[in-house]
Amino acid sequence: MKWRVVAWVGSFATIFLFLPSLLFKIWDYLIKAPWEAKSWLFYILAGLAFIFWVRWRWRKKHRVGQIRQDEEASLLFLAKERLVKGEISLEEFREIRRELD
């Protein structure tokens, strides 16, 4: 038997047999267990939510700087294209480049 077939059958079994039964067991635990037995789950979920929120804020803050760098690079690229097409002279290109730096 080839390894691809084994991997495919294992993936199929995991997705359609194991994960649904695990989901039902977790759901049953969350519904029927008393709060004292599952309060630890609340703290884990709250911590994960806080971590995702911090990552989202950090990425949002750093994305603005990246967009500005991309804009400057694209403006320089446009100036190079215009220079190649002959729309602007070499002196005008150098002036644009000095302004962008």
Can you walk through the features of this model?
With 101 residues, the chain is mainly α. The chain has two domains: 1-32; 40-101. It contains three helices and no strands. Helix 2 runs antiparallel to helix 3. The radius of gyration is 28 Å and the shape is elongated. 1% of the residues are buried. The mean pLDDT is 83.
Keywords:
mainly alpha; 3 helices; elongated
Topology:
Elements: H1 3-32, H2 35-85, H3 90-100
Structural class: mainly alpha
Major beta-sheet overview: none
The amount of beta strand, in percent, is under 5%
Principal-axis shape equals elongated
How much helix is in the residues?
over 70%
The radius of gyration computed from the alpha-carbon positions, rounded to a whole number of angstroms, is: 28 Å
Round the mean pLDDT to the nearest integer and report it: 83
What are the low-pLDDT stretches, counting only 5+ consecutive residues below 50? Answer: none
TL;DR?
This protein is mainly α and 101 residues long. Helices cover 91% and strands 0% of the residues.
